[in-house]
Specification:
Its EC number is 1.1.1.44. GO terms for molecular function: phosphogluconate dehydrogenase (decarboxylating) activity. This is 6-phosphogluconate dehydrogenase, decarboxylating. This protein has about 500 residues and is α/β, with parallel strands linked by helices. Helices cover about 55% and strands about 10% of the residues. The protein contains 22 helices and 11 strands. The chain has helices at about 15-25, 40-50, 60-65, 80-95, 110-120, 135-140, 150-160, 180-210, 215-225, 230-240, 250-255, 265-275, 280-295, 295-305, 310-315, 315-320, 325-360, 365-370, 385-390, 405-425, 430-445, 450-460; strands at about 10, 30-35, 55, 70-75, 100, 125-130, 140-145, 165, 170, 475, 485. The strands form 3 sheets. The chain has a 7-stranded mixed β-sheet with strand order 3-2-1-4-5-6-7, with helices on both faces. A two-stranded antiparallel sheet has the order 8-9. A two-stranded antiparallel ribbon has the order 10-11. Helix 5 (about 110-120) links the parallel strand 5 (about 100) and strand 6. It is globular.
Amino acid sequence: MTEAQANIGVVGLAAMGASLSRNLARHGNTVAVYNRHYSRTETLIGEHGDEGKFVPAKTLQEFVGSLTRPRTAIIMVKAGEPTDQMIDDLADLMEPGDIIVDAGNAYFKDTIRREKAIRARGLHFVGCGVSGGEEGALLGPSMMPGGTDESWQTLGPILKTIAAQAEGEPCVTHIGSDGAGHFVKMVHNGIEYSDMQVIAESYDLMRRGLGMEPGQIADVFDEWNQGDLNSYLVQITAEVLHHIDAATGKPFIDIVTDQAGMKGTGTWTVQTALDLAVPVTGIGEAVFARGLSSSPELRKEAEQKGLSGPEPQAILSDLAADPDQRKAFIEDVRQALYASKIVAYAQGFNEMQEGADVYGWKLDMGAIARIWRGGCIIRAKFLNRISDAYASGDEFGSLLFDPFFKKAVEDAQDAWRRVVVRATQAGIPIPVFASSLSYYDGLRSKRLPAALIQGQRDLFGAHTYGRVDQPGVFHTLWAGDKSEIRQD
């Protein structure tokens, strides 16, 4: 029998799993490690075995036997069927009270299903979102674990040893029961999609609209990163744009194909928002923008068919030629970017709140904002402001109603509108800039044209409507004498 000596174990030693194992070992944990192909275990121990205490296992039985009770195993394997199989294999070897942690990007409804099944066997199942990529897993990620309060008592102290630190606080907290952790990580990734897309739109406006070179645009992002837009994504945008391709000597950005991939979490965010009837327009447009970028044949056909439109630099030549006007337009883009980022976060937090209501979770929005301040991809300066907003005790339905963010968007909206107008005139696509502004305008509208849609629905499908002057549900006899009848 293998001696039980490891307080935590990791199954799956590809890039993320290996990095997480090393992080755990570096911070005083004794880490059991197992991979289906033992060669990866040997590589980890051979290259990094001196970084801490590892207990390598050749079989899953050895792995489980090396864990102290309650046995706690983190799985980092391919999503889908491989995850289900590994959960079952571990559960067969474990005993009541033991803990299985899925730290991959699982769909939260799968996590709800898995937690229910594992709970019935007397075990704990934790779906844990991990943000920060391979570097974060090694140096300190932001983590979003779900699961029971009992599992958090065991897992929490371990995760706090390896989490990123922000202002002296570990970037991990117990999110809520069953699928809450993976739900919050899903929305985090949706916000990330919107954030990345609107940054790309800002780059496009300066590159195609003003004719600026990548290095010049990189300098702009470097400057923006010193102010309100201070964030990881703005920081790395400057780094990417400064980079020169060694093989060609050209700017790196110019030798990369313009087809952005995606692994599903952004799509899940939008699909879930549709199920919850929560508008996440910025996130949705970011997902669709990636879809369009990944349709090269369709775009090539559009070029061949000669779809006409304005030439960006011809339309914006007045701005490009005049240094003062160009500087003013770049400042407008900065403000539009800031406002659109606020909308993305507001929409994401609305989705999380609605998800909490529907699935019975008690999500601490301020705590979620705090654990996103370090380690994760969307870490940004204004997450402190979001945390403060939720800690204020004020009741508000959207971050856009919080005094700080309300003023920030109001101060930026003239610039935001100028950017949307000029980009549209120049034929530069700005799906997130434009949809975020439309969302803001829809939110502040006293009356929307949905009244007409209600009339249309009632005419063709007898779907009924409400009246502004009295309660109840009504239907007009459109095919008859057009008299109105009450349906409730």
